[in-house]
Amino acid sequence: QVQLVESGGGLVQPGGSLRLSCAASGSIFSINRMGWYRQAPEKERELVALITSGGSTNYADSVKGRFTISRDNAKNTVYLQMSSLKPEDPAVYYCKVSEVLLSPWGYGDNYWGQGTQVTVSS
Hints:
12 strands
């Protein structure tokens, strides 16, 4: 019903920047929550940032002031601008969308992307 395609991961030096994108497609009427999570080796998956359809945002303390989440509702796309990347930021970053109104009728929740690798290394 809903497919997510992420892009933008890669290798960056400490202090550098990357922009992740996640495009949702399918029988979508609207999406309330869009977010980014990350999972490093041997660690639990954790929330990085969330944004609602109204533009409210929520960030993990570890990324506040460095990462910015945004969305384009017309394109059903969410972005994560990552700046001042640190050695503790490398992980597989996953996109998730929740509270999806499907077209013509229906409701879906908690769709995940396939993940994109972010590596920070000099």
